[in-house]
Amino acid sequence: MGDALVRAVVFLALVVLLGIAERLWPRHAAAPHRRQRWPVNFVLGAINVFSVRVLLPWVAVDAARWAQLHGVGLLPWIGLPAMPSLIVAMLCLDLCVYGQHRLMHRVSILWCLHRVHHTDVSLDLSSAVRFHPLEILFSMMVKITAVLMLGASPTAVLGFEVLLSAFSLLTHANVAIPSRIDHMVRAVFVTPDMHRIHHSVRRAERDRNFGFQISWWDRLFGSYLRDPQAPLATMRIGLDDFRSPADQRLRALLTEPLAPL
Description:
The chain is mainly alpha-helical. It is 62% helix and 0% strand. It has 13 helices and no strands. The longest helix has 25 residues. The N and C termini lie far apart (40 Å).
């Protein structure tokens, strides 16, 4: 419960701060339709948390504790000191999430799950929790596997999970950051403008900028796109086939993976 409390406190604090920032300095000019979108997105997020807790015996931090107790994993075998081991573990986990994200776009059955995230016709902090429960379960199993293979410490895994949740909120936030600052930050970290391109209705832009926290992976593996074709303030968000109000309802999002490609 201590781990969950840390994540919940950070999450709620960022929701409040970014919610204020979105109202004061919005990037996108379109109406966000919060009254329609926020209840659906946040209820879906709550379903995801409940699903992981009920359907999986472990979360990633539990796997890290088990690995530490039994001396399992690559990092304990190498014998790195605590701090370098923590940094390596967090970087490797971030690379793993990047790789999984690319896979979700390339494998048809996984895209059917992941496109729930991309059907949001606006983009703001609530989009950060708009995922299908089956994708969240799959993602957690991938992270558990990576944690066991690495032998990542519980501290590293908790730190990574907190940062992943925080960056997901930040990079989806509808917040305007001056271009000069944005491109300086992009040298290391993913920014809202960088990730917004990934939610473009154009596939050539949607299949770019897969990173969640560290921007290096997109540059290293050739998936980085600096600027979209349309201005960020007016760029069309979402998918062409899922734009009606009926497509945005909770029941539709839960059953959407069954829709044809």
